[in-house]
Design goal:
With about 450 residues, this protein is α/β, with parallel strands linked by helices. Among the domains are: about 200 residues, D-Maltodextrin-Binding Protein, domain 2; about 90 residues, Periplasmic binding protein-like II (D-Maltodextrin-Binding Protein, domain 2, 3-Layer(aba) Sandwich), CATH 3.40.190. The chain is about 40% helix and about 15% strand. The chain contains 19 helices and twelve strands. β1, α2 and β2 form a beta-alpha-beta unit. α2 packs antiparallel against α15 and α18 runs antiparallel to α19. It starts with 10 loop residues before the first helix and ends with a helix.
């Protein structure tokens, strides 16, 4: 009988199947209280796709990512002759999200989409997203207990609102510290594991030969949109960005101040910089202009392709502080409620196929993303990749320290306001106390305005 609650999704499975290189005790995810879904009051109409049905899937994948999705989709349609999946590449993520919003306002949403949960929150609040719980619980075509236990808890919980599953995890990655192994060895520097060690390593690896205050080699490079993914440093300082239940912002707090003081220390010392015109933080590390950078594991294919000869790049978990929390992010797949019953069933069958062990393993092997099932580690295709590229093991080893960001409607707007203030801090134009106070005020206003739309 299909399981009708999502309980104990990963805890025991992962302890037996994964290493814990990030160390320490297991942590509860922020959304643990949401990892159980109540039996849905809605009953889906169709349990099989009995007639020719076309579904449209909007996404933002390109290059090898898009090629992998196309291969999986072609395989699905070959095995499911009644279903035609129309893949629509909408450009980058922002292009996709803008087009989704426009289509929602015009009542022309696609069957399904790739989307971040903090974006999906608005659509859920407006009743535009199909509840997938009945499909998951279906006796014939739903998830088994083994399926549920196979998906990391923090990933599955990211698609649950009010006890209902509105999205299934798809492409996930981890924020990590990439480092130039060659530079570290030559300088006799150990890979940092704490904030203090990180600061010291950045200082030792920074090179300013002509002493003009503009180093030829920076110790570390950060993404231009640092505020968007500021959460791990706030978490490691014992704080958070915001409360998902109450919408309270935590920008003007001692914990946030401690995290910003740490980051600002490197910027003011000229041992760290933003990506700037390089656009991506990994680029200066690839060509020897920086020793470290903070970037997603999804950047790995580009790093492998673009690294200069003679440079070896490796990756480590983000150095910790009071805690060792590690940020995981990425999109889920959701189905819109405007789809017909037959389209919803077809979309569910496609989602199951897209995220099964074999296909999540294949997608992870072909891209920089990580599989959304624990069992993928035993898949021959992905197991071979782990042998050839041990760096991909990192994200699997850090699951016990992982968390995903909050999903507040307007949360991104609030973080943008924080970003504006942090830009002034890092450029030396404004003090931290004043900046965080203004970020709190402006962030609260921005969130309220977003929630009123």
């Amino acid at each position: 009988m299909k399981k009708k609650v999502l309980a104990a999704l990963l805890c025991t499975t992962m302890a037996a199947s994964m290493l814990t290189a990030c160390g320490g005790e297991k942590k509860e995810t922020e959304k643990k209280e949401e990892t159980k879904t109540e039996s849905s009051t809605e009953k889906k109409t169709d349990t099989k796709v009995t007639e020719k049905t076309e579904i449209t899937f909007w996404h933002a994948m390109s290059g090898s990512n898009e090629e992998a999705i196309q291969k999986i989709t072609d395989d699905f349609m070959e095995q499911n002759e009644n279903v035609s999946v129309k893949l629509v590449n909408q450009g980058g993520y922002m292009d996709l999200f803008d087009k989704l919003m426009a289509s929602a306002k015009a009542d022309q949403l696609p069957t399904m989409t790739q989307i971040y949960s903090n974006r999906l929150s608005w659509y859920v609040s407006k009743g535009l997203v199909a509840d997938l719980t009945p499909y998951m619980e279906d006796e014939q075509t739903g998830f088994t207990e083994e399926d549920l236990a196979d998906i990391p808890e923090m990933f599955l919980a990211d698609g649950i609102w009010d006890g209902k599953q509105y999205a299934i995890p798809f492409n996930k990655s981890q924020m990590v510290l990439y480092y130039n192994e060659t530079m570290f060895e030559e300088a006799g520097v150990e890979v940092p594991k704490t904030w203090d060690e990180w600061t010291a390593a950045a200082e030792k690896l920074t090179v300013d030969e002509d002493k003009d205050g503009e180093p030829e080699v920076y110790g570390c490079v950060f993404a231009n949109n640092l505020s968007t993914d500021i959460a791990p440093w706030l978490k490691q300082a014992g704080g958070s960005t915001m409360n998902e239940e109450t919408n309270e912002l935590y920008f003007d707090t001692p914990e946030t101040k401690e995290a910003i003081e740490f980051l600002n220390g490197m910027f003011q010392a000229k041992t760290a910089r933003f990506a700037g015109d390089d656009e991506n933080a990994n680029v200066p590390v690839q060509d020897g202009r920086a020793a470290m950078c903070v970037a997603s594991t999804s950047a790995l294919p580009y790093i492998e392709e673009g690294t200069m000869e003679g440079i070896t790049i490796n990756a480590a978990a983000l150095p910790g502080h009071k805690t060792d929390d590690q940020l995981y992010y990425g999109t889920n797949v959701a189905v819109f409620d405007s789809a017909t019953d037959m389209q919803k069933q077809a979309a569910w069958e496609y989602i199951k196929f897209l995220t099964n062990t074999e296909n999540t393993a294949y997608f992870a092997a072909e891209t920089g993303y990580i599989p959304v099932r624990v069992s993928a580690q035993e898949d021959p295709v992905f197991a071979k990749v782990l042998e050839e590229k041990p760096i991909k093991q990192l994200s699997l080893e850090c699951f016990d320290k992982g968390f995903q960001g909050t999903r507040n409607i307007g949360g991104k707007n609030a973080l943008d306001e924080l970003g504006k203030q942090l830009d002034l801090v890092f450029s030396g134009e404004k003090g931290i106390d004043e900046a965080l106070k203004d970020a709190q005020t402006n962030g609260e206003q921005a969130m309220k305005e977003a929630q009123s739309n």
